[in-house]
Amino acid sequence: MKKLIITLSIIAMLGVIYPGLPISAQPVRVPHENPENATGLPDKVGLLLSYIRVINLAGNSRQQDARDLLNELKHADVPDDVQLIINQYNEVWQSLFSTLGNLEALLDEASGLLANNQIYELRQKFNSADNDIKKVYTLLNSIDTATNSLCNKLGVFSASATSQLNQAHKSLEESQVRLDDLVNMLEGLHQKLSEQYIQKEQLISTEVSLSIDPESAYVGDIVTASGKLIGDGSSLIGKTVSLTADNYTLATAITKLNGLYTAAIELPYKYDENMTVNAVYSPASNDVDSYLACISPPVAVTTEYYQTVLEASVPLKIYRGLPFTVSGEVTSDNDNIPRSAKVLLDNTLLTTETISGRFSFEIMPPDEFLPGQGKLAIDVSPQGRYAGASAHSSISVSLLPINIDTRIPSVILTPGDIEISGIIYSELGPVMDAEVNLKLDDASVAATSRSDGGFQGTIKSCLLPDDAPPTTNPFYVSSTPTDSTYDFSPIGIREITITADTPQSPGFILEVKRQIITINPLSLGLILAILAALWLFVRRRSRTLTHAEAAMTPAENTVLPKDIPMPVKIPGLTGIGGQVLSTYRSVLAVVEKFSGVIMSPDTTLREFLTTASLPSPIAAAHFAELTDITENALYSARSPKKDTAARAEKLAFNINEELGYGTP
């Protein structure tokens, strides 16, 4: 009853909480329930809430996250007609997010160029931004139409629409309003930047020229760059001109008389055949309010260097714990100078070697690499005029299969030494220096494999535990507690476990189990001796009973009364006398059985003693003494002694033991 009440309480609590869950939070996953199979509202509400989350991501300038969530909505499990509307709806949203992302990037770039007075690139960017803004408004109109179509299909505008569905539709409209605010903000930023552009056009325009001598040189050599900076037709003196290549500043120069400048450029160690250099003037400090920035026409410089060719050979498969060989040859156009080479496995550095010409070296794979496919890369670093080179290869990392062959006797006599030997090998040959552990019960012996892969160990099997003191263990043998075991059982099936930890497979423990039969002659002989003694004892008792039955008076001539009368209980006979009489009565039935004589009511104890004949003289003597004790207890005027009852019980015990009748 208590469990039933608790269960009903939980169900009632869930019934109270659950109705508010669908609208209380946005869904973590896209709904995948099929509306054809289930008509519950959470499918429709969940779909609208998913689009609310998409719009909120876009409103926070997380365009890519919004697009990823839209891709998940393609897999919603909905009817085909609804899926068609969703696909069209998603395409419009994808186009909008792509356009918004491009617009934001254009405006960010325009803002940076305006800050540096680089208006020579702005006109094209503003034209692209204008086109994107127009496209955004067109897409927003398409989204309004597609939203109405989707909501109509979901039954939002029907009279049967629930409050949860209406609330989700209202939240969707609010999210679209916030998205409109983002578009308005971007349009305002575009307008602001356009106004700044118009203001910048009023500044003095500048122009810079560039020439490089020589136009061809080796990497690391010095070339001279020169040119002239003018503003509104006049030479500009004391201005900084930067020499750049690929947005990297190579050198700077200060214009002198007549706006001329010169600069020494050290060609960077970029091993490309051509390098494009520009001279750039960017106004600084007070010049920002006076001059526009400018850039020279590009000048191509031919860079020369020595090509490096790398040929490498690596195995298709390597094993953890075993070295592998990498070989090959590195050559250059001019000369084979010593080069530094790195070997990486899945971007993890294995080794760094100095190579020249032909090379070959061994590498030990790290233990932490898991088996599987990997990428091995050999990278020869560039050095001065010598370009670098690299070679890549797919490689398989595996555990070397290890096998153990054991030599263990099938039957072992204990106590004694159990000799265990074997060999550890792989497909590559014997495995040496493997840590081998031999275990039987609690005994453990360690061994190490030799160069031929062989190992050997001895486990001592004792009759009793080694820690038993010699006074109680006559078979005591002094030995190390960890290399010995004991078993007192005569015959048993026991298991020997052999484990091996090899250098070729670090962390991987190979285990082999073998069963043996143990025979303990000592305990087996002891058990056989006990069984023999029991057999002799039973046989002796059986013969005694046979003789007793043969000496009995035939009972078939004796008529047994239905009720055997016993001596009349004397009133007030309690204490020791009562105990003695009780003991006599218990023995009487045994004596009647063995003698074949039934005590009649008119027979005295003494008369019955003379009539009853027992097969055992000893039992007859004990019964005579018991009869005397009982007569004295019944008829004597004096009270029995305190030990009389104990003596009577002792005599009764001896009678039963002698006649083989058991304890009374």
Task: Give your account of this protein's structure.
With 664 residues, the protein is an alpha+beta fold. It folds into five domains: 22-200, Methane Monooxygenase Hydroxylase, Chain G, domain 1; 206-304, Sandwich (Immunoglobulin-like); 308-398, Immunoglobulins (Immunoglobulin-like), CATH 2.60.40; 405-519, Immunoglobulins (Immunoglobulin-like, Sandwich); 555-659, no CATH class. 38% of the residues lie in helices and 28% in strands. The protein contains twelve helices and 29 strands. The strands form six sheets. Strands 3, 6, 7, 9, 10 and 11 form a six-stranded mixed sheet that branches. Strands 1, 2, 4, 5 and 8 form a five-stranded antiparallel sheet that branches. A five-stranded mixed sheet has the order 13-19-18-15-16, with no helix packed on it. Helix 3 (42-59) packs parallel to helix 7 and helix 4 runs antiparallel to helix 5 (80-115). The radius of gyration is 55 Å and the shape is elongated. The model is unreliable at 1-30, 32-42, 471-481 and 551-569 (pLDDT under 50).
Task: Outline the fold blueprint.
Blueprint: H1 2-17, H2 21-24, H3 42-59, H4 63-73, H5 80-115, H6 122-153, H7 163-200, E1 206-208, E2 211-213, E3 216-218, E4 222-231, E5 234-235, E6 240-245, E7 248-254, E8 260-266, E9 274-281, E10 294-295, E11 299-304, E12 308-313, E13 317-319, E14 324-332, E15 339-345, E16 348-355, E17 357-363, E18 372-380, E19 389-398, E20 402-407, E21 411-413, E22 416-426, E23 429-430, E24 435-440, E25 443-448, E26 454-462, E27 484-486, E28 491-501, E29 509-519, H8 521-551, H9 575-595, H10 605-611, H11 617-635, H12 644-659
Parallel strand pairs: 3-11, 13-19, 21-29, 26-27
Antiparallel strand pairs: 1-4, 2-4, 4-5, 4-8, 6-7, 6-9, 9-10, 9-11, 12-14, 14-17, 15-16, 15-18, 18-19, 20-22, 22-23, 22-26, 24-25, 24-28, 28-29
Helix pairs in contact: 3-4, 3-7, 4-5, 5-6, 5-7, 6-7, 9-11, 9-12, 11-12
